[in-house]
Write a structure and sequence with these properties.
The protein is of the alpha+beta class and about 210 residues long. The chain folds into 2 domains: about 1-40; about 55-210, Protein Transport Mog1p, Chain A (3-Layer(aba) Sandwich). It contains 3 helices and 10 strands. It has helices spanning about 5-35, 115-125, 185-205; strands spanning about 55, 65-70, 75, 90-95, 100-110, 135-145, 145-155, 160-165, 170-180, 210. Strand 6 (about 135-145) and strand 7 (about 145-155) form a beta hairpin. It is globular. The N and C termini lie far apart (about 115 Å).
C-alpha cells in the first residue's frame, strides 16, 4: 500500500469515527429529550419555632385572665380589624417571630348584645371565609372554669385559618381570630399553624372569668 493509499484509509477511518460520535451524541440527546421531566416541589423558607412557655394575662381591668405563649406580645391598637375598638378589652397577641396575630375581642352579654346575637355574629364572621376555604371544621369546647364555645379550623387559603368564641352563657363573651401577615397559602403556613394551634387551645383551657 502506498503512502497515498494509507492517507486515504486513515481519512476514511477518521470519517467513520466522526460519524459514529455524532450519531451517538445525537441519540443521547434525543433520548434525553424524550424523558419525562418531573419538577421539584415548591420549597419554603425554614422557620425556626420558638420554645414553648407561657405567661399569665391579668391586666386588672378586663374581666378575665388566661395564659398565653411567651413568644407573643400583647398590644392594643387604635384600629381593630379595620374598625375602631368599642371596648378596652379588645387587643391583639402578636407573634413577631411567626409573622402572626391573634385578635381578641370581648363583649359583655346584655340587652344590647344578647348571647344569640353574639354567637350569630361569630358564625357570620367565620363563614365569610368560605369563598377561599376548602372546609370549616367545628370543635366544641368546654372547660371546668365555666368556659364553653366553638373552635373553627378553616382549611384552604383563607385569610384566617383559626377562629373561636367562648362564653359563660350569661355575662361574658370572648372571640378570637388568627391571621398571618402574608398572602394566604395553606402549605406555607401549615408548620406555623400546627405550632400555634395548641397554644390557642391552651389560652382557652386556662381562661377564667372574673366575677
Amino acid at each position: 500500500m502506498t503512502r497515498g493509499e494509507d492517507s486515504i484509509s486513515l481519512f476514511g477511518r477518521v470519517k467513520k469515527l466522526t460519524f459514529f460520535l455524532i450519531a451517538g451524541v445525537s441519540l443521547l440527546f434525543a433520548s434525553a429529550c424524550e424523558r419525562n421531566y418531573t419538577p421539584k416541589p415548591r420549597g419554603y423558607f425554614k422557620i425556626t419555632l420558638p420554645e414553648r412557655s407561657y405567661r399569665k394575662f391579668d391586666n386588672g381591668s378586663c374581666p378575665f385572665t388566661f395564659e398565653y405563649p411567651a413568644y407573643g406580645v400583647i398590644n392594643r391598637d387604635s384600629v381593630f380589624l379595620d374598625t375602631v375598638p368599642d371596648n378596652p378589652c379588645w387587643f391583639n397577641i402578636t407573634f413577631p417571630s411567626l409573622n402572626g396575630n391573634l385578635y381578641l375581642s370581648y363583649k359583655e352579654i346584655n340587652n344590647s348584645h344578647t348571647l344569640n346575637d353574639l354567637i350569630e355574629d361569630s358564625h357570620r364572621l367565620t363563614f365569610k371565609h368560605t369563598i377561599k376555604a376548602d372546609f370549616i371544621d367545628e370543635s366544641f369546647l368546654r372547660t371546668p372554669q365555666h368556659v364553653s364555645g366553638i373552635l373553627f379550623d378553616v382549611g384552604g387559603n383563607a385569610a384566617s385559618a383559626l377562629q373561636f368564641y367562648v362564653t359563660d352563657s350569661s355575662k361574658h363573651f370572648l372571640r378570637g381570630s388568627l391571621y398571618f401577615y402574608n398572602t394566604p397559602n395553606a402549605d406555607s403556613i401549615a408548620p406555623v399553624l400546627k405550632f400555634i394551634r395548641p397554644d390557642v387551645i391552651k389560652l382557652i383551657e386556662t381562661l377564667q372569668w372574673n366575677e
